[in-house]
Structure prediction request, 614 residues.
Amino acid sequence: MSVLIVGSVALDSVATPYGKVDDALGGSATYFSLAARLFSPDVNVVAVIGDDFPEKHTQMLLGKGINLDGLMTSEGKTFRWAGKYSEDFGDPETLDTQLNVFETFAPVLPEHYCGSSFVFLGNIDPTLQRQVVKQVKSPMLVAADTMNFWIEGKLDELKALLSDIDMLLINALEVRMLSGNKSLLAGARDVLKMGPEILIVKRGESGVMVITEDDIFVLPAYPIEQVVDPTGAGDSFAGAFMGYLASRGKIDFVELKRAVVAGSIVASMNVEGFSVHKLAELTIDDIAARMKEFREITSFTVPEFDL
Amino acid sequence: MSVLIVGSVALDSVATPYGKVDDALGGSATYFSLAARLFSPDVNVVAVIGDDFPEKHTQMLLGKGINLDGLMTSEGKTFRWAGKYSEDFGDPETLDTQLNVFETFAPVLPEHYCGSSFVFLGNIDPTLQRQVVKQVKSPMLVAADTMNFWIEGKLDELKALLSDIDMLLINALEVRMLSGNKSLLAGARDVLKMGPEILIVKRGESGVMVITEDDIFVLPAYPIEQVVDPTGAGDSFAGAFMGYLASRGKIDFVELKRAVVAGSIVASMNVEGFSVHKLAELTIDDIAARMKEFREITSFTVPEFDL
Prediction:
């Protein structure tokens, strides 16, 4: 089944204790689509680039089988972000943000995208996210990302969006902001009451939590040897998650858990390299091997107690 | 098999956003022994109290079947600690520490303790920890806790201790301090090279990691509804861990993983109440039920990929 991502394509300048890159390929739609195509052959991108965007990047994405019919080129410069991560790899220090052509981005779906089954609304203005929802016809799953900026600045629009979607993907701080509840579990239940049936809580080095009305799943982070560049962790997670589900064509809790594992594994590999360098080279065999290893290092049995 | 704990018995005054207690029963040996006795009937305590220590506390511990032959009473006041936790339940603010009789604590094991099979050295001066190791005869497992204070102030003694023990239990920050390595996984391997065969890394809300030369196990934290008082989480973890292993009488990686799960579950229940209130009332049935539930909410299967 087909996957749709609406988000950003950017040129990122990132410095970490392990090196730096300048004007490297980035953006939520980029990470998402490169992760999703590992599982699903039919990935549709909606985003905007400037007329300065290097042709080699579009060629690379096309070469991976990603559909760029919805990638508009506008007059002006491509969205640019510059940031710096410290040794603890917490939130980066933003050194520069130039929205450029992204400032007037109004996502319009090519006609043949409107039947996409698995729709992901990257972290953009909830007003735009709602416009995308209106354009898709009978999707199987509509999921959205958001952030503190929209929770603080566009809460009414965001709440309206929550009624329109099936799944929300946010971090633990955002659960607390959105719910006003200090307990993560109670706060997550409050967010479910706002509309989405599935909530995925990204917890960084604490892993991921999935919660629905009836089920819960907690997964630790895969223990990687060395984070090199955390940029795109959330978007590569989301791409693998949605791509995996699209490849199965069904959504039940067994498949949701596997999708979360697939997402975690792809994100863990993405952050082992700068920009999309590692992500672009991954194969499904690499992922399958690490998923099996992850199961081995997390599984346990419960003894019978006869005291 | 028998369990030995050498540590503190204290009177704690703790304030959290959910309430406060004054001069409540605390100390590493208290939490440890109350957790260990849930699994193992033979738990031996070595600690010191002052002549002001309330008789009701010793009666409660004796009533739980804990052996207090090694609990010395010295002239003076019992060790007291006062602290305050904020809403995020990070490290507490220490308001007051009165070592009192604990200042001159020199652990001497009663003769019938010296054959204990599972020995836990609570977080005290590594010089004293080493004195305990010299007193035990052919233990099956010797484990120790330590902290940043000893890593900074008594590194040589601590390193000597590491050659004497089988297992070390520390947090992620302490792994980094001890190894000088920023990567948790690489740092953990460095610590293993210092002597212990098993390293348990306590990661708070990120869960627990166990690492040996050949194996690794990562477990998320059990998602509790509401932390009320985190005091004693590490010590109740350690007590349940050692008590569980003692009840099985063998140490292999299957049992180590189960011991970590038992420890996590008991710690998760302990922090749902102030002081030892919840811990003292637990039964093995409560624990077995939550262990099973924990397995359900953490287990997943890996699909076959046929792309």
Summary: Chain B has one domain: 3-298. Chain B touches chain A through 46 residues (CB under 8 Å). Chain B has a mean pLDDT of 95. Residues 3-298 of chain B form a domain with the UDP-N-acetylmuramoyl-L-alanine:D-glutamate ligase fold (CATH 3.40.1190.20).
